[in-house]
Amino acid sequence: MVGMLGSSTTFGPLMADISHFFRRRRGIAVALAASGNYIAGAFWPTVIQHGVETIGWRQTYLYIGVIVIAAMLPLVLVLRRRPPKSAMTMPQGVAGGRNDLGLSLGSLQALLALASFACCVAMSMPQVHIVAYCKDLGYGVARGAEMLSVMLGLGIISRIGSGFIADKYGGLYTLLLGSALQGTALSFYLVFDGLWSLYIVTALFGLVQGGIVPSYTLIVREYFPPAEAGQRVGAILMTSIFGMAAGGWLSGVIFDMTGSYAAAFVNGVAWNVLNVAIVVWLMMRAGRLRLFAPSFRA
Fold first, then answer.
1. 89 phi and psi, to 5 degrees?
2. Which distant-in-sequence residues (6+ apart) come within 8 Å of 174 by Cβ?
3. Domain annotation covers residue 260
4. Is 99 exposed, middle or buried (0-12, 13-18, 19+ CB in 10 A)?
5. Rounded to two decimals, what is the model's pTM?
6. Which of 103, 131, 216, 232 is least crowded, fewest Cβ atoms below 10 Å from its Cβ?
């Protein structure tokens, strides 16, 4: 209920709405707006861990709820301003229900939804299971909570940095870069499982994956009509959350079947490869990526 009725009414609409107020610096604007949940992710795990150990999880959640109500309701009132009418004009390359990728809007939506699902299945492995993984290795849940805070805290840097990259190179390039680096960092979990090496790998994972989700908002703004931004972004974020949920569940099933998280990490890398393949194909259709170097005349 927290995720469905809480996050769903703030995160997606906030990113879609803020994208209408910026043109030249849209990437960094969306990235900053999307960084709020990572700041919270860096702050709350250790606080919750302490609260659960001292006053119990129910009382801890009650206090968090009070703080959220007191902080968010006044801030929501500031966001009532509507975007300028000029922001609702059709972007270049979108006409007649198609875009400059040569795909129908529905087909592109489906591909982006599949890509977001795949990348979030991969992303969920460390985010959902790092605490349990640390406990399984004998390091304790407190260490896992610290690593989660490190991961999400450094995700702020990659999320904001991705905004600058997107403003210069576009959403597809930013998504490809983030997805490729995420897959690389995820594969390191297969090699390193020492305490301090896990801190380093987790920090690296946080540094590279934060910009992936905001990239989808920027892609939507580049290839879809502005008036449809809310529903398009919302649908893609919905599939990404399904990916996080499915990935977390699937990793647990694989662990129960194998008694080890190694196969779960391999599963995450495989889904990440699917995401990269979709983005590479879209960039090739856009003429912005060539797999083979052009031949040179003598």
1. -75, 155
2. 27, 162, 165, 166, 211, 215, 218
3. yes
4. buried
5. 0.80
6. 103
How far apart, in Å, do the first and last CA atoms of the chain sit? 66
Residue 291, domain member (yes or no): no
Could you tell me if residue 294 is inside a domain? no
Q: Which two tokens stand for residue 6?
A: 């809480």
Closest CA to 207 of 166, 154, 160: 154
pLDDT in tens, 100-143: 677 888 899 999 999 999 999 999 888 888 888 888 888 888 88
CATH number at residue 153: 1.20.1250.20
Q: Is 170 helix (H, G, I), strand (E, B) or coil?
A: coil
**Inter-residue contact 171 to 157 (CB < 8 Å):** no
Four-point Cα dihedral 51, 54, 60, 62, nearest 10: -160
pLDDT band at 89; cut points 50, 70, 90: low
